[in-house]
Amino acid sequence: MTGLSSDKKIKVCYALLICLIFLLIGALMSCGYLEPAKNKDSTQPLTLSTQNWAAKQPYLTCSHYEEKAFLKALAKAGAYQLEGKMLAATSPHFLPAMDYTANILSTLKEQQPDCQTIFVIAPNHSGEGLPIIVADQGWSTPYGRLEIDEEATAAILRAPSLAGKMSTDPYHLQNDHSAAVIMPFIKYYLPDLQVVTILLSRACSLEQLEELTRLIYDYGKTKSIFLLASLDYSHYLPISETTQRDKITQALIESGDIQAIKSLDSGYLDSPEALIILLNYAAYFDGAKADLFDYIILPESEVRQNIGYSYQVYLFQTTKSIRASFSPPLPPHTTALKQLPGKKR
């Protein structure tokens, strides 16, 4: 650009920069990383690409897997005996309590070996990003790859009623243990099952939860599905108070008071939103209800033995099941409800 004035040099540089930007955008669109804007009548969200998952991104990794804790959970696990069809369940995402997760999936394998898709609904503990994060890829587990249900995932991502409220953020999916820790158990017990992974933040509204439940229910009309809400109950409180909070949560679950459940904080449970999805889903089935089947309080640490963390299994069934009574306060490291009349060991 010798001989050009400084003003002309600046204009030429700007022109070259604009050309480079357009070339970059074109390259990204051709690879499927960006999509052109749709018109207002489109049923596809404007910025979400739901095509070519495997080609576009690698599998999510189970970075929170610990083999020793996993094998210990398997050794303690046993299937529940149920009178009705199991529609959904709440599961812990804390490794020392993951035998409860194994119990649930062992029951699912025994009762519904033809189940095709599991929806794992878990908290976004960080609260960062959009209210709903939906994985558009499967998981790489120590027992092989857990494949995504592409049809179900696309149905959710394309829902116009949730446009602008969802992302496919792999960072939080992998780094938040709430869903990732469940995946090796699913692959171990039901290796052919496909998965839909959803993280919910506290910012998710009741209307969004209702719409998300409807989408899941509608998809279940065409496939055999199961819902697993990964959530932990009362946190950070003295053990005696933990039990009292759990009793309040139990009463709200029994009454189906969704408004009150939505207002609960981590003193009661870490994902009211995941629980609400299960309550909304059960409401589609006549006679379905939640029964408490397992319950444990563990101390925060060896140093803070008086601070309790609560982990529970609620099973949602189509008919009334053998019911486990709620436990009194528990000392540290003590498990309640391990020998239920309705449970195999």
Entry summary:
This protein is an alpha/beta fold and 345 residues long. Helices cover 36% and strands 19% of the residues.
Number of strands: 13
- DSSP helix fraction: 25-40%
What is the CATH homologous superfamily assignment of the largest domain?
Answer: LigB-like
At CATH level 2, the architecture of the largest domain is: 3-Layer(aba) Sandwich
**Number of spatially distinct domains:** 2
Characterize the largest beta sheet: strand count, sense, and whether it forms a barrel. Answer: 10 strands, mixed
Distance between the termini: 82 Å
Order of helices and strands: HHEHEHEEEEHEHHHEHEEHHHEEE
- Total count of helical runs of at least 4 residues: 12
Would you give the CATH topology of the largest domain?
Protocatechuate 4,5-dioxygenase, Chain B
CATH class of the largest domain: Alpha Beta
Shape: globular
- Classify the beta-strand content into a percent band: 15-25%
Structural class: alpha/beta
**Radius of gyration, CA atoms, in whole angstroms:** 23 Å
Q: Report low-confidence residues grouped into runs of 5 or more.
A: 29-56, 320-345
Query: Average pLDDT, to the nearest integer?
Result: 82
List keywords for this structure.
single chain, 345 residues, alpha/beta, Protocatechuate 4,5-dioxygenase, Chain B, 2 domains, 3-stranded mixed sheet, globular, disordered C terminus
